[in-house]
Write a structure and sequence with these properties.
- With about 450 residues, the protein is an alpha/beta fold.
- Helices cover about 45% and strands about 15% of the residues.
- It contains 15 helices and twelve strands.
- Strand 3 and strand 4 form a beta hairpin.
- Helix 6 packs antiparallel against helix 14, helix 7 packs antiparallel against helix 13 and helix 13 runs antiparallel to helix 14.
- The two termini are about 15 Å apart.
- The structure holds guanosine-5'-triphosphate and magnesium ion.
């Protein structure tokens, strides 16, 4: 992908298909000649909606009557000239307009290319870019609200704040390094330590929510496990509300795990039906069981099913997941007594206990993924988490150096590294492959 080209780019900014309107976005240096040529209008006022006809001059035909908005650079999303053509919806019109534009040496935009240009022209920084991407990709009200909270600049302003604190300390240290002890009053290690501890606690607050953010971004993995025929697929179908996986009284019906995305109590969830766990010499079974155990390892929650004794059955597998909900399956008779071993009696056939299972799931999710929208700071991407983890380690090292009274020159060099890390987080220093991996996750037209 060559994001660094200078071409005029265009793409559909809305989803293709039947709709009232479609929006085509164009960006590039000086779009006035193109705009005049496709509309036969001379003057467009920046950021005003103009009703006009779009022509295909080469074919000498009218393509559509549209609302066109021209954003003169630099006051546009990308910082370049931008045109947004609001044409009629449907499958044909937008495609015809785009094909006409592509015949005018306009290039189809790559995924995320508009946002990449916005970044290059300092319209957005990397954190904003990642926030926009997460917002577009959010799959539940919960993650949407969490990300929206983040749009109000909280990470960026906190990073700027941290970097200011570090730069202030660095200025003092480096000034002191230029003078001898009797020439000036030295800043005490303790006062620098206080600032470092303050930054450490901010960074730590961010990191303490990383599992929550990962879960919100990629979904909470809920894995249904149990021996063959325990009723896993039946429960899976019950939870998703339709027959997605095959159910039969033959053991080993499910071979490949099946994964479905859904929302439970506002939380984005990946519900996974697995192959039953049992000892087998058959290679296909061995592979299926290996897959099941792989899912068990990445599980955030396991629903463990067994007709007789789910608790002891699961205990044989050395499961590392902290949240296991044990269920006795096929308990169709609602008069059955409550279990003494913390397992729920459920029946996918009669629905008995299914609501209790939902309640239990909701409780587990809301306890594990509790988030205080107003106060809890979050990092939006794996990239940010990695940088904050590195920063945390560096801060710990600086703290030890100060406590052990090591030379200020080495402290200063570590603090420079720290500011570089936070600059990297904002995208002030970045390399092309990092940028490409961020922007290529955007959709075309964004
Ligand atoms: N009576 C009763 N039968 C059930 C219930 N749930 C599942 N079954 C039956 O148990 C058999 C196995 O069900 P599945 O859902 O395919 O079980 P599984 O655990 O997915 O089985 P494998 O994929 O082979 O590991 C089928 O005949 C189901 O109809 C239930 O709640 N009550
Ligand atoms: Mg099955």
């Amino acid at each position: 992908m060559d994001y660094n080209r200078k071409d005029i780019i265009a793409a559909l900014a809305t989803t293709p298909g039947i709709s009232a309107i479609s929006i085509i976005r164009i960006s590039g240096e000086n779009l006035t000649p193109l705009l005049q040529s496709i509309t036969k209008k001379k003057i467009f006022k920046s950021r005003y909606a103009t009703y006009c006809t779009i022509f295909d001059k080469k074919k000498k035909i009218i393509l559509d009557q549209c609302i066109v908005i021209y954003f003169a650079q630099p006051n546009s999303y990308t910082g370049e000239d931008v045109i947004e053509i609001n044409c009629h919806g449907g499958k044909i019109i937008a495609r015809k307009i785009l094909n006409m534009l592509y015949s005018h040496e306009v290039q189809p935009a790559l995924a995320g290319e508009f946002s990449y240009r916005a970044f290059l022209n300092n319209k957005i920084d990397l954190i904003e870019a990642e926030t926009i991407s997460s917002l577009i990709n959010s799959e539940s009200d919960y993650s949407h609200e969490m990300i929206i909270e983040n749009l109000n600049d909280s990470i960026r302003s906190n990073i700027l704040d941290i970097n200011n604190k570090i730069t202030n300390v660095l200025t003092i240290i480096e000034h002191e390094l230029d003078f001898s002890e009797n020439e000036i009053d030295y800043t005490t290690n303790e006062s620098i330590l206080l600032i470092i501890e303050d930054i450490l606690s901010t960074v730590n607050n961010y990191l303490s929510n990383q599992n929550l953010v990962k879960a919100m971004n990629s979904g909470i993995n809920i894995v249904i496990m149990g021996i063959p025929n325990a009723g896993k697929s039946s429960l899976f179908n019950k939870i998703i509300g339709y027959d997605r996986t095959v159910v039969s009284n033959q053991e080993g019906t499910t071979r490949d795990s099946v994964e479905i995305k859904l929302v439970i109590n506002q939380y984005p969830v990946n519900l996974i039906d697995t192959a039953g766990y049992f000892e087998s010499a058959n290679q296909i079974n061995i592979d299926s069981i290996k897959q099941t155990m792989g899912y068990a390892q990445s599980a955030d929650v396991i629903i463990y099913l067994d007709e007789d004794d789910p608790v002891s059955c699961a205990s044989k597998l050395n499961l590392t997941c902290d949240n296991i909900i044990f269920c006795k399956s096929k308990q169709d008779n609602i008069k059955k007594l409550v279990n003494t071993d913390d397992s729920l009696n459920i029946s996918s056939k009669s629905n008995h206990g299914i609501n209790s299972l939902y309640d239990k799931l909701s409780t587990v999710l809301s306890t594990q993924y509790q988030y205080n929208f107003k106060n809890d700071p979050i990092l939006i991407s794996d990239r940010q988490i990695l940088i904050f983890k590195e920063a945390y380690l560096l801060l710990e090292q600086i703290k030890t150096m100060l406590e052990e009274d090591m030379g200020m020159d080495i402290v200063a060099s570590h603090m420079h590294e720290l500011t570089n890390l936070f600059d990297e987080c904002l995208g002030k220093v970045s390399n092309d492959s990092v940028l490409e991996s961020i922007f290529s996750t955007f959709c075309v037209g964004k």
